[in-house]
Amino acid sequence: MGPIDETIKPRNGRPAVAHGQAPVVQLRDATVVYPGGNVGLDGVSLAVERGEFAFLVGATGCGKSTFIRLLMREVEPARGEVLVAGRDIAKMSRKRVPKLRRNIGVVFQDFKLLPNRTVYDNVAYSLQVIGESRSSIRAKVPEILRLVGLSTKLHDYPDELSGGEQQRVSLARAFVNHPPLLLADEPTGNLDPETSIGIMQLLYRINRTGTTVLVATHDSEMVDKMRRRVIELRQGRVVRDQRGGFYRTDGTTEFHLTAREQQANGAR
Amino acid sequence: MRIFFLREALRALKRNAAPSLAAFATVLITTLVLGVFIPVVRAATAKTNEVRNKIELEVFIQDSANKAQIAELGNMIRNINHVQSTQFISKAQALQILKQRLGTKNDPITEGLLKSNPLPASYRIHLDDPGNVSLVKSSLAPRGSDGKPRYISPAINDVKDREDDTKKILSATSTIKLLLAALATLLVLASILLVANTIRLSIFARRREVEVMRLVGATNWFIRWPFVIEGLVVGFFGAAAAVALLWIAKVTIVDPWSHRFALIAAPRTISFTLLVFLLMAAGMAVSALGSGLTLRRFLRV
Questions:
Q1: H/E segment holding residue B274
Q2: Looking at residues A89-113, what average pLDDT do you find?
Q3: Cβ of B223 and A131 within 8 Å?
Q4: What is the Cβ-side half-sphere exposure of residue A256, based on CA atoms within 13 angstroms?
């Protein structure tokens, strides 16, 4: 994956984490109640700074997906404030929602690719539907596909690709517009560990361009390896928000112990 | 951009060929019925109005009446309100009119039959408005002290109007109109629902596309356009096919026969160009409505 580092560069030399600016994501007492009374999120307050890389962890049903869907404004908060790029999306009119989503890239566990379109068309489609010009599409799509390492498979159909490759296409689609915020809901949930590493590396590199990346995951190995901010949810509440954290607080494997020791010594 | 919408719409039509065909056929049939219904109703209405405008009163005169009585009666009639003009028709003229109507001017048989001229002389009364027939009638025969109507002049033998004929025509045409309107309404409803169903299937078949569109931030109208166009294409081709069929029917059936049937040849029926325009508009409107209905329900983002 050598060439990727050359192709993704921090834009405008923006530092990876820019403090002092408005957080990309800020929740204050955000509560989501589903019709039927199920509580998706329960009074969550947190902020994610520009350029940050954060994991959302927790058992199934803990509210990770609700969190992602809330930021997309697929669900509305019953209470509290949800600010994305300084805008309260609870008060946002329906008309503005598409504009919000253009500034958020999303990746899902099941890729959500269109099976009857080629790799190129899948990525181009997402640009077409937001009204990009043809020339801009012709310039952007091959570039982003080269960036995710799929420049040789432009005209393949999704079912001709491996799972990892499909997820790369979906990453390309999410990132082709260089959104300031990238959300990933279990991006490696369907992939084997080897492939997962590739995807995580890609996410990491995207993050290095200044894009804030938020990953909801079960992939403990990945979280432990990356050692970035970890936000743990349980029954819709934040039970842990730790920088450079692990998937579990009580990891007892050799790896955990050594790592924790290193962390304590300030070595990273 | 437009090309994108059109391409997406055609792509969907191709993939949903069967329901699209059903919707197309319904729009076709609806438009056909409308295409027959509109000119027939127009012609019937025109004919009824024509008959209504012809309503006049005829005052038949006793054969025994002398010239002075007849002239006096003429003056009396002209003095009645709502009477616009009168026309005296003598016995000889009445016979002439009858002969003309029968088209046997010099037929020896009718000559022989009508030797004695049984027809009475009459006054034809033209009214300012057909609605005043009964008023004028009662003026000609006011009720006397015993409550029975009595003619204003002994010269009058009988007073007749053509209201009864008109009423018959009116009720017949209104029944036809009502039936056709009911049929047309049902068909319009059916085609709206079928187009709606086609679009629903199309949305269902393309729910992944719609999902992705919403995810990447396509505006609602951007998502809707291909579906609306899809409906309009169905409507357009359905209406166009109906118009083509109507045109064939017009050229092969109606035109050669029109000299035989007054109704078809009625000058006040609708012009074919206007009809085509109306039908195309109706076909498109029906399908736009069909897709609009579905989209409102399904694409709430």
A1: helix B272-298
A2: 89
A3: no
A4: 12
Task: Determine the number of helices (DSSP H) and then strands (DSSP E) in chain B.
Answer: 12, 4
B3 in contact with A at a CB cutoff of 8 Å? no
ipTM (interface pTM): 0.74
Three-class SS of residue B58? Answer: strand
A111 residue type, one letter: F
- At position A253, the amino acid (one-letter code) is T
SS3 assignment, position A216 = strand
pTM of the model: 0.66
Tally C-beta pairs within 8 A across A and B.
48
d(CA B207, CA B217): 15
**Residue B85 pairs with which residues in a beta bridge?**
B126
Q: What would the pLDDT profile of A222-240 be if each residue is shown by its tens digit?
A: 888 888 999 999 999 999 9
DSSP letter for A89, please. Answer: T
Task: Give the residue among B285, B189, B294, B191 at the shortest CA–CA distance from B232.
Answer: B285
CB atoms within 10 A of CB B165: 12
Contact between chains at B216 and A72 (C-beta distance less than 8 A)? no
Are B55 and B137 in contact by the 8 Å Cβ rule? The answer is no
Q: The tokens 């197309």 sit on which residue? A: B24
Q: Which of A210, A166, A228, A260 is nearest to A10 (CA)?
A: A210
Mutate which: A96, A126, A129, A178, vs B, most B CBs within 10 A: A129
Q: Which domains, and CATH codes, for chain B?
A: 2-50+167-298 (no CATH), 55-161 (3.30.70.3040)
B211 at the A interface (CB within 8 A)? yes
